[in-house]
Structures are given as structure tokens and as C-alpha cells.
């Protein structure tokens, strides 16, 4: 065959191959499921709408069906990062989308505009799927300015809000070039994700003082009349302001030929109900009423959205008017009662609960009826409560339930640990399990050692750690062969090997911790012995009811902040305690007294220093995500949260100092070398003590090693679906996405 004929033959073969490949691709593309949308006479496309109190989806059979929205709220961060840094990758999103859809959810809610990769990844994920995963796009309000100026009509606030609306709409429809700006999403938005949008969710939770002041200052604001949304004759000045922003969102979207349902963010604090049992005036000061905003020429429709948790405000556990429905245990289900009352107010529009849930944290910050507290739950308990809340929402006829939240967020803060997390700008670099807000997720963001070390009383997994990660101490303590120490972003880990099998019925094992000069002598726990310096905490491992971390009286953060030298809320008899070590407590309810509040309520605190014995190994009878310690034979293993040891920021070795609070009741920290651990054993029958001082009655703590670690700027973490994920999957499975006619 000549060279020319060979070339001609190769060209023909290549052309044929391209034709066949193109045909296969075209056939594959043709066979892909198409997203069926409704096209109105004017050419506007729709996939979702509202109809009376129903939320509707247009199906592939060409009919509208009533839908129950099931979803999760999705954040934009990962450990070691703050909002506005947007560290998530395409791989993160694609992995999460599958896990979320496997959960049984049909929607993701995002609070603000994500990076372009979110929208392109969602479109890629949904391509070819008969049941796509949809999203609700939130539009962030100028929250800080609104709170600062206490006036929604203040200069530039509305302008900034409208700019954010323009950004969100253009980003969703893949039509934006957003320049880089610190703390905000940016980039080239080229992927049109509009067909997977379920609704617009405008704004954030409204500060009641700001709403009230806006209404007073602008009482003469005229009724807003827009193109697609208007304020009603009953609309307050703030509601008219909201109507204009919803209208502006609709006008911007209409440019792209689509209409989607609209809502704005609301919460219990600014709901439409009266709460006579709520003690705080500001929690029942003013209403923002979705019924006072009317859609006009907007077929996509409009619905009300509320964030409703079972523990906040305090009305959920003290308002007698909500104590009308009992659960199967005979306890009042004030959450269900509230949902019932709220839903009754909205007879002609859908209502969704777009935030609800409880965290799987050691820390707790609010109390709810029936144990539905803000924190203090292991992952199984979290799942059970989340599932029960979801069922309440479904049973009361709501249009949707969007759980807070998908992933744990290390940067979060909450009121009762904020004073202790110092420096505040380093919160994202460690996981404070006492801060419940960090642990609402169904997806755990576990600290670095959790994948490697199982708390089960067996120390064989410690052998897998690098030598430089573990400090080994083999001091002269009768009964103790060896003590190992390591740490990660959440815990200090200690592994002890004893001479004899540990029996908490016969022996008490204690560890004193020394980080600062000062502290208390553990006289009752270490009788006849004296340390060269006081201890900050004492860790007791023994019977289940006595295993805990106790804090030195002079170091007690709770007493210093809320006692007579702080906010003066702790009862006098409690302050008179002579015990040198106190239970480790967090405030959960502050003292309330008229006339500053409607009614009087005492200061309340919860002991968070209790140490649960069990295992973190999955599938065991005593598995518990809040496990702190376990023993097995002659080995004992524990992990202690950093804050229980007095650290305001372990990533920079900042320990909270002694002394009076400064600058308006503020704690301060100092850089420390590390932690000195003082182990000792007490025989219950003979009272004999084995300690590092041997036969001596005094011990110089400087003779003991200091456990040191290097400051860190990068975090290590691993993802894990919590046990609550499976509980919620089962819950969603029982709730059909579509009502069967």
C-alpha cells in the first residue's frame, strides 16, 4: 500500500470512528433524563411554586404535586477556616451532595453566595439524575450594620443589600464576574444553576430592637407597591422595607426568564405570636409578619420561613401557655405546641421550618423541655431528638423541614463559652467540645487523633503514633508502670499502664493538672500530702458517679464570672463552699429579675465536667460519642477537652489566668509551657496513697515533666458520618416527598 493510500485509509478510519463516537455520545445524551419545567404563556420557566398553603413541584408527568421539603443547611467552611475564606473544593461538594441525597434530603440551603465551584459542582452532580438535588439560595443581609445602626433605612444599608441580591441572582444564573474581596465569595460564575434552584431565602434573623426602632423612627413610611411584591395596608415600616427587597429579588430573577418561590428569614423572637410566659421583653418585643407582604404577578409564589429550636428563647421551657401537649413519656412537648400555634396563623400560605436541631456536644447552653437541650447529647441522642423534631414539623402540616446542619463548624461560638475562648480569632484552629454551636452537624469534623485513637482502655493503637507525638513518663509511683500523653485539636490524651488490673470499686485514680502559678491544694483528695504549687484541676477516675474534672476554687471560671465579683448571680450559700475544688460548670440561664424582665428566674448552671466511661468504638454496647475514659485490665485511657483544663486556646498555648476579671468582666490569658500531670492512686479500703512523692509528704512539681507541644497554624481533621445521620435517614425515609392524591 502506498504512503498516500495509507494516509487516505487512516483518515477514513479516523473519520468513521469520530462519527460512531459522536453517535454514541448523542444517543447517550438523548437518553439522559430531562429536567421537566413548566413554561408559562409569557415564556417564564418554573419548577416550583406555592398554591395556598401548599408547596408544589412540577413533575415529569406534566402535573403539579404537593411537596414536603426535606433538607439540610450547608456551611461554606471547614476546620481551620472562617466564613469568607471558602476553602471547599469540588471534591468536597460532590462527596457531600451524594451523602446528603443518600440521607433522603431533596434540598440544600445555603446562606450566602458560595464560590463558583459550588454551582458548577451541583450542576455536574445532577446531570443525568432522575431525582436531582435542589438548593435554596440565601441572601445575606448587612447584619452587623443593621444591629449597629438599629435602623433598616439608614444610609447605604438598603444599597448594600440590593448589591448582594444582584450578586446572588447573577451568580445562580452563571452570569457574574465578581472581583476578589476579602471575606466574600468571588470569581467567574459561568454555570447556570437556575434550573436546580428551589427558592430564594432573603435576609438573616432580625434583631428585635432594630425592627422596633425602625418602625418607630419611620412610622410615616408609605406603603410599598412594587412590580411583584408589595406591602399590605397593615405592613409596618420594616415589613415594607422587606417587601421592597423581595420585589427587587423578583425583578432581578425575572431578567433570566424564571420565577421561584420567595421567602425571608424569620425566627421565634420576631414571630407573629404573643408569648406571655417569655421573661425577656426583647424576645417578644415586635413581630415581622409574612402575611403583610403580598405577591403580585408572581406565579412562583411566596411562603413563610422560620428558624425554630426547642430550647430558645426561654419560653420553650417556662411559658405555661405552651405546656398543652404531652409526649409518650408524659412530658410536655412545647415544641409541638408552638408549631401548632404558629401554623394556625398561616391558613393561606405555606410555612417551612428552615432551621432546627440539637448539637452532639459536651457543652450545653440552653434548656428545653423533655431533655431537648442545646447540647449535652451524644450522637445517638442527637439523632433521636432531630428525628422527633422533624416528625413534629411534618405532623403539624408544615411545607418543609431543613435541619441545622450538615457539617460541624469549628469557628462557631456560643454565649457561655465566648468569654473563655481567648484569643477569639483563633476559634477555628481547635475544637472546643464545650461550645455546642460547633457540633450541630450530621457530618462530624473530627480532630486529628480521633481516627487513630479509639477510647476503649486498650493502648495498642498508641503504637501507631509517631514517636515525636507521644511523651512517655516512667516515674517512681508504686502501682504505675508508665504514663503516655499526646494531644490533638480537641483533647489531651493520657494512657496509663498499671501494675495491677484497675478496679474502680477498690481504687480511685486521680490526676492533678498544673499549668500556672497558683491554684489549690487537693487536701481532701490527697490527705497528708503537700504540693509545691497549687493545681488548676483534679481529674478523678473511679465509679461512674464520681468520675469528673473539678476546678480549683480560685480558678473557677463560672464563679469568677457570675459570683459576687462578677455578675453577682450565684446564690450566696453556693459561694460559701469551703471545698478547694468545685464542679466544672457552665451557665445555662442567667438570673432574671423585674423590672428588667417580665418575671423572676434564678441563675442556672450545668456540670459539664462529668467524665463518661465507655468507648468511642462503633457498634459496641457502651459506644458513646461523649466517652471520656475507659479501662481494660491494667490499662486506663482518657481524653480531656482543652477548656476543662483551663485553656482559652491550646493552638497558641494560651491558658486562662487567675485574678479578677478586667475591662468589663473579661478574662485574660497567658502563654504557658504546657501541662504538668500529677498522677496518684488511692486504695479505698486502706486509704493508702501512691504518688510521685513516694514516702515524702511533699512534692516539688518541678521534678515532674511538663507535657509540651508546638503551637499550630494548620489543623488536622477527618470527616465521619455521625450516628445521628442514620437516625435522620430513617426519619426522612418515613416522610414521602410528595403527597399522594
CATH fold call of the largest domain = TIM Barrel
Number of helices: 13
Q: Report how far the terminal alpha carbons are from each other.
A: 72 Å
Secondary-structure arrangement, i.e. CATH architecture of the largest domain: Alpha-Beta Barrel
DSSP helix fraction: 10-25%
InterPro entries: GH
Protein name: Family 2 glycosyl transferase
Kindly describe this structure.
It comes from Paenibacillus amylolyticus. This is Family 2 glycosyl transferase. InterPro entries: GH. By secondary structure, the protein is α+β, with helices and mostly antiparallel strands. The chain folds into 2 domains: 399 residues, TIM Barrel (Alpha-Beta Barrel); 267 residues, no CATH class. It is built from 13 helices and 39 strands. Helix 10 runs parallel beside helix 13. The longest helix has 29 residues. 50% of the residues are buried.
Keywords:
741 residues, alpha+beta, TIM Barrel, 7-stranded antiparallel β-sheet, 13 helices, GH, Family 2 glycosyl transferase
Provide a compact summary of the structure.
The chain is an alpha+beta fold.
Topology of this protein?
Layout: H1 3-31, E1 38-39, E2 45-46, E3 48-51, E4 54-58, E5 64-66, E6 69-74, H2 90-103, E7 107-110, H3 116-126, E8 134-139, H4 143-149, H5 157-172, E9 176-178, E10 187-189, E11 197-202, H6 208-217, E12 229-231, H7 237-254, E13 262-264, E14 293-295, E15 304-307, H8 315-318, H9 334-344, E16 351-355, H10 379-395, E17 400-403, E18 443-447, E19 471-473, E20 480-487, E21 491-498, E22 507-514, E23 530-531, E24 537-541, E25 548-552, H11 557-562, H12 572-575, E26 581-583, E27 585-589, E28 604-607, E29 612-613, E30 627-632, E31 635-641, E32 647-649, E33 654-656, E34 669-671, E35 675-683, E36 689-690, E37 698-699, E38 706-707, E39 717-721, H13 723-733
Amino acid at each position: 500500500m502506498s504512503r498516500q493510500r495509507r494516509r487516505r485509509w487512516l483518515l477514513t478510519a479516523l473519520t468513521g470512528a469520530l462519527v460512531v463516537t459522536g453517535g454514541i455520545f448523542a444517543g447517550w445524551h438523548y437518553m439522559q433524563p430531562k429536567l421537566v419545567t413548566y413554561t408559562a404563556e409569557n415564556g417564564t420557566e418554573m419548577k416550583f411554586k406555592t398554591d395556598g398553603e401548599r408547596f408544589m413541584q412540577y413533575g415529569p408527568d406534566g402535573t403539579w404535586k404537593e411537596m414536603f421539603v426535606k433538607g439540610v443547611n450547608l456551611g461554606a467552611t471547614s476546620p481551620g477556616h472562617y466564613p469568607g475564606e471558602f476553602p471547599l473544593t469540588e471534591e468536597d461538594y460532590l462527596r457531600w451532595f451524594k451523602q446528603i441525597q443518600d440521607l433522603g434530603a431533596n434540598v440544600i440551603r445555603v446562606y450566602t453566595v458560595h464560590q463558583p465551584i459550588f454551582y458548577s459542582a451541583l450542576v455536574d452532580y445532577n446531570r443525568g439524575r432522575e431525582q436531582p438535588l435542589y438548593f435554596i439560595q440565601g441572601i445575606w443581609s448587612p447584619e452587623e450594620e443593621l444591629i449597629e445602626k438599629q435602623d433598616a433605612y439608614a444610609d447605604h444599608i438598603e444599597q448594600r443589600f440590593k448589591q448582594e441580591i444582584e450578586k446572588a441572582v447573577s451568580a445562580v444564573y452563571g452570569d457574574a464576574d465578581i472581583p476578589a474581596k476579602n471575606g466574600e465569595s468571588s470569581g467567574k460564575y459561568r454555570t447556570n444553576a437556575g434550573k436546580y434552584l428551589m427558592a430564594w431565602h432573603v435576609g438573616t434573623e432580625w434583631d428585635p430592637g432594630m425592627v422596633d426602632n425602625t418602625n418607630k423612627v419611620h412610622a410615616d413610611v408609605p406603603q410599598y407597591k412594587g412590580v411583584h411584591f408589595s406591602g399590605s395596608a397593615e405592613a409596618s415600616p420594616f415589613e415594607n422595607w422587606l417587601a421592597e427587597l423581595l420585589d427587587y429579588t423578583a425583578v432581578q430573577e425575572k431578567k433570566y426568564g424564571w420565577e421561584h418561590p420567595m421567602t425571608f428569614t424569620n425566627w421565634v423572637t420576631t414571630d407573629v405570636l404573643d408569648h406571655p410566659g417569655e421573661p425577656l421583653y426583647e424576645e417578644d418585643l415586635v413581630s415581622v409578619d409574612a402575611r403583610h407582604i403580598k405577591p403580585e404577578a408572581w406565579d412562583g409564589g411566596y411562603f413563610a420561613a422560620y428558624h425554630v429550636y426547642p430550647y430558645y428563647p426561654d419560653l420553650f421551657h417556662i411559658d405555661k401557655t405552651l405546656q398543652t401537649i404531652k409526649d409518650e413519656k408524659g412530658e410536655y412537648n412545647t415544641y409541638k405546641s408552638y408549631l401548632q400555634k404558629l401554623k394556625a396563623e398561616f391558613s393561606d400560605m405555606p410555612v417551612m421550618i428552615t432551621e432546627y436541631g440539637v448539637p452532639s456536644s459536651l457543652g450545653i447552653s440552653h434548656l428545653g423541655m423533655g431533655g431537648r437541650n442545646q447540647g449535652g447529647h451524644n450522637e445517638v441522642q442527637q439523632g433521636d431528638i432531630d428525628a422527633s423534631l422533624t416528625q413534629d414539623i411534618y405532623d403539624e402540616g408544615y411545607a418543609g423541614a431543613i435541619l441545622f446542619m450538615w457539617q460541624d463548624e469549628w469557628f462557631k461560638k456560643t454565649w457561655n463559652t465566648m468569654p473563655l475562648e481567648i484569643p477569639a480569632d483563633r476559634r477555628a484552629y481547635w475544637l472546643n467540645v464545650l461550645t455546642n454551636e460547633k457540633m450541630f452537624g450530621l457530618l462530624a469534623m473530627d480532630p486529628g487523633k480521633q481516627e487513630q485513637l479509639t477510647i476503649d482502655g486498650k493502648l495498642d493503637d498508641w503504637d501507631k503514633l509517631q514517636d515525636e507525638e507521644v511523651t512517655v513518663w516512667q516515674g517512681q509511683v508504686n502501682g504505675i508502670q508508665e504514663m503516655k500523653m499526646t494531644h490533638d485539636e480537641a483533647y489531651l490524651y493520657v494512657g496509663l499502664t498499671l501494675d495491677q488490673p484497675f478496679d474502680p470499686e477498690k481504687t480511685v485514680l486521680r490526676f492533678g493538672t498544673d499549668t500556672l502559678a497558683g491554684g489549690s491544694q487537693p487536701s481532701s483528695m490527697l490527705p497528708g500530702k503537700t504540693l509545691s504549687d497549687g493545681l488548676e484541676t483534679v481529674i478523678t477516675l473511679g465509679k461512674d458517679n464520681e468520675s469528673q474534672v473539678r476546678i480549683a476554687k480560685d480558678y473557677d471560671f463560672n464563679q469568677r464570672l457570675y459570683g459576687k465579683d462578677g455578675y453577682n448571680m450565684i446564690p450566696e450559700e453556693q459561694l460559701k463552699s469551703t471545698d478547694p475544688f468545685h464542679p466544672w460548670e457552665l451557665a445555662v440561664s442567667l438570673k432574671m429579675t423585674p423590672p428588667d424582665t417580665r418575671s423572676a428566674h434564678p441563675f442556672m448552671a450545668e456540670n459539664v465536667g462529668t467524665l463518661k466511661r465507655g468507648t468511642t468504638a462503633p457498634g459496641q454496647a457502651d459506644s458513646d460519642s461523649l466517652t471520656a475514659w475507659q479501662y481494660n485490665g491494667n490499662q486506663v485511657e482518657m481524653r480531656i477537652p482543652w477548656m476543662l483544663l483551663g485553656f482559652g486556646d491550646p493552638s497558641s498555648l494560651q491558658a486562662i489566668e487567675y485574678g479578677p476579671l478586667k475591662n468589663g468582666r473579661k478574662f485574660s490569658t497567658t502563654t504557658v509551657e504546657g501541662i504538668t500531670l500529677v498522677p496518684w492512686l488511692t486504695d479505698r479500703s486502706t486509704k493508702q496513697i501512691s504518688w510521685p512523692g513516694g514516702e515524702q509528704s511533699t512534692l516539688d512539681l518541678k521534678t515532674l515533666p511538663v507535657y509540651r507541644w508546638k503551637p499550630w497554624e494548620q489543623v488536622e481533621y477527618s470527616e465521619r458520618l455521625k450516628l445521628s445521620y442514620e437516625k435522620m435517614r430513617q426519619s426522612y425515609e418515613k416522610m414521602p416527598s410528595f403527597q399522594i392524591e
